[in-house]
Amino acid sequence: AAKARGTGRVSIASDKLIASANSQMLLEGQLREAIMNDQLVLHYQPVVGPDGAVLSAEALVRWPHPERGLLYPGDFLPVAEQGDLLGELDRWVLRAAFTEAAEWPQLCGAILGGGVGIAVNLSGLVPGDPEFVDVVSASVAATGIAWDRVVLELVETSLIDLPSRSREAMAELVERGVRFAVDDFGTGYSSLARLKELPAQIIKIDRRFVSGVATDASDFAVARALVDMARAMGRSCVAEGVENATQFHVLRGVGVDAYQGWLLSKPLPAKEFREILKLGPVHIPRGT
Ligand code: C2E
Ligand code: MG
Ligand code: MG
Ligand code: MG
């Protein structure tokens, strides 16, 4: 733009652009290093049953940045995507989450920790990748986690119209005991009717519907229809973003299988999540 104006000077606007492009490149390099040097951390958010029993944990990645403080996925996933680092990130998370979860049975007793699932979000590594089955299998083998504790979360858009190769890769893992979850269900393009085509055992109802379930008649209707359909198709339902007791009790009333959200627990550092496991069922406040 500066050139077009013919001043030969760099305008303030393009200075800013250059600065942000530079800081983007800087962040990208730093993120690559952080992944390679094991400097990311995982927080674990409990997923509980209707009675508060901890059924699984979702691993959520954070980046303790030396200058910028603790960064959340919203801050750096776009950087990872831009830098083509999502696949590397996913591989790191798989390994780190399974390593942590593999210790729960020893620390918390086989009954408490042994059956607790570990859910990992995948966005760079997808079932269509030729190495998908091998990468997941190698993480399982290296950490010794039981196959039936593994949950892989994928967003709806990466699960529709899958080529048969992807479906076969998923089926191979399911055969060994892995479960797949559709994350943020309801935010993608597919309608309720397409639920049947989604190759996933678990449906995660997006926070957007959960937030209105006690106050908005149509959100309630969507949630109820979703749960009914999921059940008819042999899938289980997890509600995301449950923030208050009213939402929890309304959802329990329609038969949601599992619950995740700040009402029950925020995502916790590994050490604090272990304490939660030792305490047993999470306390559920009464409805209002
Ligand atoms: P998600 O998989 O849908 O994860 C749930 C998000 O909702 C998390 O945000 C969690 O902290 C937040 N959350 C949990 N309970 C509540 C609640 O009651 N209220 C509200 N308002 N929010 C709640 P987070 O950790 O910032 O992660 C955001 C997204 O980034 C995730 O959405 C997921 O898509 C992605 N992500 C997180 N960790 C990873 C990872 O390790 N790998 C990949 N590929 N993506 C990740
Ligand atoms: Mg998720
Ligand atoms: Mg989600
Ligand atoms: Mg989400």
Give an account of the 3D structure:
- With 288 residues, this protein is an alpha/beta fold.
- The protein has eleven helices and ten strands.
- It has helices at residues 12-36, 73-82, 86-101, 104-108, 110-114, 132-143, 164-176, 207-212, 217-232, 245-254, 270-279, and strands at residues 41-48, 54-65, 69-71, 117-121, 150-155, 179-185, 202-205, 236-239, 258-259, 268-269.
- It is globular and about 65 Å long.
- Bound molecules: ligand C2E and magnesium ion (3 copies).
- Ligand C2E is lined by residues 45, 59-61, 72-74, 77, 89-90, 93, 121-123, 153, 183-184, 207, 240-243, 261-262, 267.
pLDDT averaged over residues? 92
Following the backbone from N to C, one meets helices and strands in this order, namely HEEEHHHHEHEHEEHHEHEEH
Radius of gyration: 21 Å
Write down the overall geometry. globular
Number of helices: 11
Describe the sheet with the most strands: 10 strands, mixed
Poorly predicted sequence stretches spanning 5 or more consecutive residues? none
Q: How much of the residues is beta strand, in percent?
A: 15-25%
User: Termini distance?
Assistant: 59 Å
Structural class, by secondary structure, is: alpha/beta
By DSSP, the count of extended strands is 10
Measured as a percent range, the helix fraction is: 40-55%
Organism: Actinokineospora diospyrosa
Protein name: PAS domain S-box-containing protein/diguanylate cyclase (GGDEF) domain-containing protein
Domain EAL: 24-281
Short characterization:
This protein has 288 residues and is of the alpha/beta class. Helices cover 44% and strands 18% of the residues. It has helices at residues 12-36, 73-82, 86-101, 104-108, 110-114, 132-143, 164-176, 207-212, 217-232, 245-254, 270-279; strands at 41-48, 54-65, 69-71, 117-121, 150-155, 179-185, 202-205, 236-239, 258-259, 268-269.
